[in-house]
Design a protein that fits this description.
The chain is α/β, with parallel strands linked by helices and 313 residues long. It is built from nine helices and 17 strands.
């Protein structure tokens, strides 16, 4: 059976500011899961990865509000919490889909650690905003008392910033591979994985950082020798000159063309499509089969070549 890693965004579980509750996210997960279930029914072995940005923000905000009553939750533990919670939403919906479709009910969520380098330059220049907004005085106190890195965020207030190091190793890779070969759909590397570093004895230690979900998904796909990396996002296709009068949707990009457009710097927005393109290039350069970017509702059509943007070597 061909293997696909399907990466869905944490924002895809929150359709708008009026629908952020856990029940709303459950219903949104059901819509995406239905398309993944159809992939499985058509013969794919699937690993699902997901983002967790909004959900980690919710946990951190609750922790901040309750810090006079309870201990605060370390960032890497927030990542583990979201892996379990979002995994539960996806896992239960998939199980119910499989039951209705008469498919084997085999889905598992795996809490996944991802090793990063302790010497990664990102730790010297943290840039990823997390958590709620603060006044300058609150930010200064957090910097002094808790050692946080803080910065002013686009005139909206001050926020904590953390490193976003590059993923080096999926710690539970062997477990993912074995479960996949046993016929399970595996939900893994949620939120880019729990960031860990190896100490002097080689033991793993969690660090307060955020790993890009698409880069971790590309690494996982490459190490599994996946046939397909499918990145599900808010648009049906990738566009050149995005947001400009001459914007143009594209059906196919070779890795050479994608790299050239990336280097031109005017097509893919940082923090949006750019990291997805970089992750896809890393997957293809590592020997991956092909990659697709599309929206959840267009997954089946994209696999059939009728939608999405396809990337090949």
């Amino acid at each position: 059976m061909p293997v696909a890693v399907v990466a869905i965004g944490g924002n895809s579980l929150i359709t708008d500011p009026e629908h952020q509750s856990v029940q709303d996210q459950y219903l949104a997960a059901a819509e995406t899961d239905h398309h993944i279930a159809n992939m499985v029914a058509s013969g794919w072995s699937v690993v699902v990865t997901h983002g967790n940005g909004p959900q980690i923000g919710f946990i951190l905000r609750r922790s901040e509000l309750a810090r006079n009553e309870l201990h605060e939750v370390p960032l890497e533990v927030c990542g583990a919490d979201t892996q379990g919670a979002i995994g539960y939403l996806l896992q239960q919906n998939l199980l119910n889909d499989f039951k209705r479709m008469g498919l084997p009910e085999r889905v598992v969520t795996l809490v996944t650690q991802v090793e990063v380098g302790s010497d990664d330059p990102a730790f010297q220049h943290p840039t990823k905003p997390i958590g709620g907004f603060m006044t300058e005085a609150e930010a200064s106190e957090r910097r002094t008392v808790d050692g946080w890195d803080v910065m002013e965020d686009s005139g909206r207030g001050w926020r904590r910033v953390v490193a976003s190091p590059y993923p080096l190793r999926i710690v539970e890779l062997d477990a993912v591979d074995r479960l996949l070969k046993a016929g399970y759909v595996v939900i893994a590397a949620g939120g880019g994985g729990i960031p860990v570093v190896a100490d002097d004895q080689g033991c793993l230690v969690g660090v307060p950082a955020v790993i890009d979900k698409d880069h971790a998904s590309a690494l996982l796909a490459a190490e599994l020798r996946a046939d397909l990396l499918l990145i599900s996002t808010s648009v049906d296709q990738v566009a050149l000159n995005f947001g400009q009068p001459d914007q143009r949707w594209v059906d196919h990009l070779s890795s050479d063309d994608a790299r050239r457009y990336l280097e031109e710097g005017t097509h893919f927005r940082p923090g949006s499509m750019e990291p997805k393109i970089r992750a896809i290039l890393a997957f293809l350069e590592a020997g991956g089969g092909e990659a697709i970017v599309t929206s959840p509702k267009a997954i089946e059509d994209a696999i059939a070549g009728r939608a999405g943007t396809r990337f090949t070597r």
